[in-house]
Amino acid sequence: MEHVISGVARFQKEVFPAKEAQFRKLANGQNPEVLFITCADSRIDPNLVTQTEPGELFICRNAGNIVPPHSSQTGGTTASIEFAVAALGVSHIVICGHTDCGAMKGAIAPEKLGGLPHVKEWLGHCRSATEVVRARCGELGVEHLDDVTCENVVQQLQNLRTHPSVATGLASGRLMLHGWQYDIASGEVRYYDAESGGFKPVDDAYRATFAARADETAGEAADEV
Length: 225
Prior knowledge:
The protein is of the alpha/beta class. The protein contains ten helices and six strands, in the order ααβαβαβαααααβββα.
């Protein structure tokens, strides 16, 4: 804990002064472009992986980067999604899984979660992912961890579409969904390609897709003016 407290002191003395103008601007509001939903795992740092600054990502974290299907029951993830889309007007949502995910290990072997009843119930939202991989590969084991982790991202994207604010954003064309998988050991990030049904490396071609979209949006805005 001492290094955490010392870090606060370094932030106040070294980091904050260099970015004081940025923080003063952020003190009056936020305008993030991306809702980033990822795992609570301590090894995942969304701002580090994406090289973004404070104010650029609206981050929602939980065990297993899970998005429960929309229902009348309110939860933190559901409220965060609604606020990010309907109030802040984010234009992109990323669901980012990762390698060596403890939540996915639990989803593969729920019988080992006897002493963690709330975790076991929460991971019930991953059952569709485990069942899809089971149908494809047979009896599940730790060797299927990467398959389950990737499939979980796909299934959570499906759950995300059931949220009214997300469905509205998709229907209007102002919102895009992304499924990512982060490899802790290599630093590689792969994205879900719906056309092929697989995950591909985030590369120049992937980036160019959204650069072109940004140019189109800027052009449309200029025409309206």
